[in-house]
Amino acid sequence: MLPVSPYAEDTIVALATPAGTGAIAVIRLSGPEAIKICNKVFFGKDLEKQASHTVHFGTIRENDVIVDEVLATVFIAPSSYTRENSVEVSCHASPYIIHKLINLFIKNGARTAKPGEFTLRAFLNGQLDLSQAEAVADLIASRTEASHNMALKQLRGGFSNELKALRQQLIDFAALIELELDFAEEDVEFANRPQLKVLIGSIQSVIRKLISSFDLGNAIKNGIPVVISGKPNVGKSTLLNALLNEDRAIVSEIAGTTRDTIEDEINIGGINFRFIDTAGIRETSDKIEAIGVEKAYEKIRQSALVIYLFDPEETSAEELKAIVNELSTHTSGDSILLVANKLDKGNEAEWKKRYEGINGILFISAKDRIHLDLFTETLLQKAHADQLNNDETVISNVRHLEALQKTNEALDDTLRLMEQPFGGELLAFEIKRALHHLGEITGDISNEDLLDSIFTRFCIGK
Ligand code: GDP
Fold first, then answer.
1. Which GO terms describe its cellular component (predicted)?
2. 136-213+396-443, which class in CATH?
3. Intervals of CATH 1.20.120.430 along the chain
4. Most CB contacts within 10 A, which of 10, 310, 331, 346?
């Protein structure tokens, strides 16, 4: 169990940089004795006499034997990440030195930090609220510009400030309703019902917007899943390679994928797309067992977009229509993107005529890189990436989504109650329920189990 009392009495230590050999490693100490413990083994200066935010060169010794030359950065409470006394020791990153130094600090009174304990302390000491603490984990894990921006925005508190302001207004109303209960015999109304309805309406509109931003936020965090499908030899691999070269992105074959589906991660416009190459759908049903086809459909259902790539020289309008119909039974028409490839050997006007009545076909050549920019623009558009460029808040955390949904339900119930001749008690109860769930997001309401489940997901040293 993680501690839940603020202002911890003990001092914790952990490696803050990745384990293994490197040029430099940083060992972090935090707690009331952090500077004192480091000072016991640090030679060169008296660290306890130094100002906050200063860096000092010295040696760390064990029984007068030098273990390493280091730089020690001193932070005096409350001006540190955890708001406790802290020291960051930069040493040479050999596993031997790291192990030796951490053991020395432990011998002198520190204890090993639990996963996420530095950030937990920052939260308990009021440096961060809960959604900001979670943003720290997201920031560390972010691999693309978009996911980085999203985490940074949450870390800066944009999202929690918005919720805090709303919560405060509701608290004020709850207080007025409680007051009415005290004067129950006199039948007075302090809380203006029409105003309360307006407030609930505006809170719900913010909450619903946040709820509906989750799909995008989640996609940004984990990559937008896109199924790329089409007959063999239509140019699927060529297209993926062309996109890869375009953006110099990282290709990775995600572990755990089977031969029927191969995933490539491609960074387009700062957003990670996960391209899932499935086995053929329609045309191969006689060759591949139904199981493979069913798997392809399952992937389509789980994906945000489906690209159907085809060679117009080999695809009639009837066939294409049949494919669109079939795909439409597994995904929304809006998420299907029809792409005609090998434009270098064909004629766009002629092809357009052939597929008259079928909307939204893109004509490209993967090999000669014709209209690839149009293709990527369309992808970004279909992924609603433009929502990211405006200042709207996007949520990406399942815990936040659930709390927002529960808040919304409680507010729905509050509105329903207001239509009926019930007393203030029930109303007060429902408003409190909504306040509780809103508070869960920022950590104004928290319990040990919740903190435990959030912070143990961090690595040690964070
Ligand atoms: P996949 O089986 O769908 O992955 O198809 P490939 O990407 O392996 O491509 C099959 C063949 O089509 C290869 O010989 C490619 O060079 C060729 N090809 C791919 N894209 C184009 C294109 O835009 N124009 C032409 N002319 N050939 C292409």
1. cytosol
2. mainly alpha
3. 136-213+396-443
4. 310
Residue 241, marked binder: no
Domain with CATH 3.40.50.300 in the chain: 218-389
Q: How far is the CA of 305 from the centre of ligand 1 (A)?
A: 22
Residue 435, Cα to own-chain centre: how many angstroms? 24
State how far the Cα of 333 lies from the Cα of 338, in Å rounded to an integer: 11
- Total length of the chain: 462
* CB of residue 414 inside a 6 A radius of ligand 1: no
Mean pLDDT in the chain? 83
Element (H, E) at 159: helix 158-182
| pLDDT confidence tier of residue 248, bands split at 50, 70 and 90 | very low
DSSP-assigned beta bridge partners for residue 275 = 226, 264
- Please, is 147 exposed, middle or buried when counting C-beta atoms within 10 Å of its C-beta (0-12, 13-18, 19+)? buried
> Residue 31: what pLDDT?
96
Residues 385 and 363: their CA atoms lie apart, in Å, by: 22
The confidence score (pLDDT) of residue 312 equals: 95
- Indicate the top mutation candidate among 229, 231, 233 to test ligand 1's pocket, ranked by most ligand atoms within 8 A of CB: 233
Q: What ligand 1 atom has the least distance to the C-alpha of 277?
A: 4
354 Cβ contact partners less than 8 Å away, ≥ 6 residues apart: 312, 317
> ipTM value of the model?
0.98
Please name the residue whose Cα sits nearest to atom 14 of ligand 1. 233
d(CA 190, CA 179): 7
pLDDT at residue 315, as a whole number: 93
Residue 257 annotated in ligand binding = yes
* Model pLDDT, residue 22: 81
Element (H, E) at 325: helix 317-328
Q: Which helix (H) or strand (E) holds 438?
A: helix 424-442
250 confidence band (pLDDT: 50, 70, 90):
very low
| Spacing, Cα 232 to ligand 1 middle (Å) | 9
Q: Are the CB atoms for 293 and 281 separated by under 8 Å?
A: yes
Question: How far does the centroid of ligand 1 lie from the alpha carbon of residue 380, in Å?
Answer: 24
CATH 3.30.1360.120: which residues of the chain? 12-128
C-alpha of residue 231 to centroid of ligand 1, in Å: 11
Q: Is 284 in the pocket of ligand 1 (CB under 6 A)?
A: no
Closest by CA position to 32, among listed 96, 77, 95: 77
- Residue 237 assigned to a binding site: yes
Residue 253, marked binder: yes
- Residue 238 Cβ < 6 Å to ligand 1: yes
Give the CATH number of domain 218-389.
3.40.50.300
Say what the pLDDT of residue 3 is.
43
What is the number of the ligand 1 atom nearest to the C-alpha of 366? 23
Q: Residue 194: is it exposed, middle or buried by C-beta count within 10 angstroms (0-12/13-18/19+)? A: exposed
